[in-house]
Design a protein that fits this description.
Chain lengths: 203, 416, 686
Amino acid sequence: MSDFTWVTLQYESGDWDSAPLVPANIIDTIARYTNIDVAPAGIVVPLSSPDLLRFPFAFLTGHLPVRFTSAERDRLVEWIGRGGFLFVDDHNHDIDGAFHKTVTEELSRALGPMVDVPNDSPLYRSFFTFAEGPPATSHELNGWGDNLVHKHLKAVMREGRIAALFSNKDYSSEWGYHPDNKRFQSVDNTKFAVNVVVYALTS
Amino acid sequence: MELSWRALALLLLVAVIGFTLRGRDAGEERVAGASLAGELPRLTREAGGAVHVDFEAAPPAESRAWLAALRHAGSGVRWSSAAALPPLALEVSPRMDPAGGVRAGVASAPRVSVLLGDGAGVLDTVPAGARVATLRLPAFVAPLTARSGAQDARALLLDSLLPRRVLVIGSAGWEGKFVLAALEERGWKASARFHVAPGIDVTQGAVLGLDTARYAAVIVLDSSAAGSAASVAEFVRQGGGLILAGSSARVARFAPLAPGGVGARVRPASLAFADSAPRRALGFAAVTRLKSDAIPLESRDGLVAVAARRAGTGRVVQVGYDETWRWRLAGATNSVEAHRAWWSDLVAGVAYRPAVPLTAEHDAEAAPLAALISTLGPAADREVPAPSSGLPWWIFAVIVASLLAEWASRRLRGAP
Amino acid sequence: MNARDLVRRARVALGVAALASATLWGLAACFATLALGAMGDWAFGLPLAVRRVLFPLAIASFAVKALHVLWRARRVREPGAVALWLEERVPALDYALVTAAERSPSLPRIDALERAAAAVEFVAPATGEVARRLATPIGIAAASLVLLLFLPPGIVSRVRSPAAGDALDHPVAAGAAVDRLVPIVARVSPPAYSGLPAQSLDDPSAIGGLVASAVTVEGRGSAEGLSARLGEASLAVTGSGARWSIRFAMPRHPVALRLADGARDRLVILEPLPDSAPVVGLLAPAKDAVFREPAGTVELSAEVRDDFGVADAWFEYIVSSGEGESFTFRSGVLGRVEAHGAQSTALRATLHLEALALKPGDLVHLRAVARDRNDVAGPDTGVSETRTLRIARRGEYDSIAVEGAPPPDADKSVLSERMLILLTEDLQRRRPKLKHDVLVAEAGSIAREQAKLRKQVSKVIFARLGADAESEESQALDDSAPPKTPEEMLRAADAATNVGTSALDFEGDETPVVAVNRTLLEAYNAMWDAERELQIAEPAKALPFMRAALDAIQRARAAERMYLRGRPPVAIVDLDKVRLAGKRDDAGGGSRAPRLAVDSSAARRVRRLDGALALLRANPAAAVDSLLLLRVDAIAPDPAFAAALGIAIDSLRAGHDATAAIARARRAAGGAPLAQRAGTPWDGAW
């Protein structure tokens, strides 16, 4: 049985499956750079399901408003309390958009206030070094969304550690391509995902 | 002739009376245990006699020592009890736990409850029974006391333990993350090295030389620690503790230290975590070919999941479980705390434990009955024997014979 | 006046006297009860519960004594008894009055008896007897009244109108020093929005109240030399006459109020009660729904409850339109209700779907929201569950599912135009350092990728018309193919684009191919130009054409929501193939920061508890203060332990045996001693 499995969270209120190529791409990245025992394919787990407690890492994205049911909220609180790590990405990269507003409200209500992750956080040095904080994506200024380069990621902290990481930078689009297409790139734009996974596995 | 017979009888009678009087003066005196403390000075002044003490409860150390001194000075000292004195023993020792706490052991007679207390009041009632009851206390106000009937025992903490750091070595993964988290959340100071890629590790703390001055125990989670195996083995020989988890015992250098070999991985029959036996939902690599000095600590379905042994001056525990993090994440309501406690106890079981002596402010009386018997011997018969004059029995026969002879002589003579 | 008249007059007089006596005796009993109670309060300080009973007890004693007196005087109704009563007091009557009074009226009068009865003076003796009987109750009542009048005014008020907070009215004994710390009185006035009444507490060890309640603590004596601290903050102590007082607002978190008078101090715990957010339940719609048409109404219903009153509530909706990568959002509010502080309220509204101008595929997220009246620290907002209403897409109910084009094989996958731009820009940046043959090779590689993408675009364009995807050149060059009629081309375009049956607007003589696919054709042509420039190793000249192609694709995507790459597959990564294939030159591994021990505060509480208990024998007052401070710190993190500790503190302060309470508190703090399995040779987990 593999140690690390990429989990995409399925929630009821929106398009949870808007980035179907991200799991394979990141799994490929993890295998390329590390010895982490990673499962070859990602899986989808409903947020309200008790099966979530079998996977300490999960990814959540979408475009549409996120409104957790009480079962989803309770499960999320339980899972984070036991040590789960959540990575949320705004597929709209729009701080004025409904996904950003609703998911930040839901996360704050369930888990506590969100704060900016300082750019000298261990997250940016856990494997590769990102001296200037979160790497920009090619989508932040593509004319859609809020047209801003977001300097910080946000997080819900627990005892000084990131329990839930939130991104407005649209990594879902940045990483949403088949892993075989990496060979055409001079710079692998998925390296930051390795930092996120290594941070989750070791913090 | 008749005069001589009469004189002999009289002389012997006078001798018997004299001996008897002297023996009565030297007979046992009975003293009640409750008043013993007040009587001891007088008994000491009148040394040379014999005293029989009736105890309701084992006396304090001072009285016991005094009686022993009396006996040593030539007085006869015996003791007994109307009802058998309840055996009671209490001991307390520090736990190797960053949160502190002590371990108390209580032994008493079968089917007897013992009231456990301390300097601040009552703690609990312990049905000790015929075996020793071992309890964990988070803290107590000295002295720790146990009462059974009228018998009290008192124990003190004579030393304390200073937990040193723990080193966790393994590949980056959930088991490493949550084992380290459990120990740190429990209060252990820890260093770590998680292997991520060739030549790339995530570390915590400067992993300096492994020795018992810095570290209490090392936890090896998998074979990625093979490069450090030599230093770990030396650390164990110095007295350090080692926990070999998962399949780490397969590493060649660890095999001589391990309690046994690593068998096939056993899958759990059910993935549901039950409160009473949560680890039944975990898979484990069975500990096989147990060495002769290995102690199986946990078994399941006939297979050993956890075993321990001493290796030189150190201790080694082999844990077959390799995914205890699932217990923390998916277990019962208290599984997070239970997971922490279990790993903390594992480390406590092997940790190098240098003790720091403490100054006791009270006197201990850990096993009062045992101390009494040790000092004064076992209890004597309660019936007081008739004082013996020390004269042979035939003297009475001689007296009677002399008187009979004198009377016969007179009668034969025809005198009245 | 004959004997009977005489007896009758005497009966009336005695009756009046009996009533007067009953009244006076009742008053005497009442005043005596009050006076005794007041004396008792003055001497011992009676608790409020006892003082509250005094007045009713006095009334009851009035009634009981009066009835008792009347009962004893009941025989005044009998003429014979009255006559006997007179005979006893006037022996000279010599039973003449009794005889005359008891003779039946039908019998003739005996004049001698009448004369004998009339001749005797009985008024004075009777009057004296009555006066004598009334003197005693009058005396008792008067004495009680005088006693009450001479008692200190505070005592009288405490007895007359006992109320919480009158502890300070109890006077200090003459000559005794005024204790400024005992007793104290606390008055708590909750915020106005809560509607709760103010309350007073006599000599409390803990003061509870809503956050931001106004708290006034008073004590006897002057304010001079008295200090007060609320946690770390000092409070001003003001004095008016013989009383001192401090005022503050109930803080958000439990804290100890420390009052100090010289070397003495006193601790009072403040226990704030939080104001909860409203609880909102969405009753209708009961579950999510899908609508075929964006028409009709949806009834909305919700219920709201709050502990101190709801301010307002409403329904909130968010409409999401779009799909793929492009969405727009609208939000609104309906059914707002002002609840004016009701503790519960119902919310109702009707959602008209036409008013929202919904289109197929749109989503409406609905929930109910409520705010409470907390105007001090809030207001707090409560929300309900969210319901999702969706408008079905066209064709969603068709029986035949139309799948997208099969995905391309992995090794034939096509890069996006955006990625080709990135590659070209990177090539252009590196151009000065590259040799010409390398430049040509790399540019050619990008050109080949551009060609692949161009052919994909052409497939989309011509597939819509049913034409052969590879026939782009032949379509342009071979005009001998039979032309389709406008109706046939329209049907084909509709089937391909699924944009409905409305007529397309053609400009001039352009074909439906051009009209429907104008933007894609623009992209196609731009890609041709870019490819041509790349083939001659001119990446700088290719870039504008590539950007134009990207712009056209995005416009086409926004217009018709297409994915040029088809539906992506579920990819399974060949881990063995890629394992450690990446370059890690810039990877260095990180460092991890240690975690903090959790529950360390619980362990500290256990140690503090044991430390305080160890002080009990040597210094009980200091031990109780330590326990009070510990209780303050435990209220929030461990309420069960704080409650158990409070009971133990109360027992200690009252001088009762606190052994059991202390044992329970210790168990609550650290858990009962845990029994391990006995007889194992290994100390540790087993």
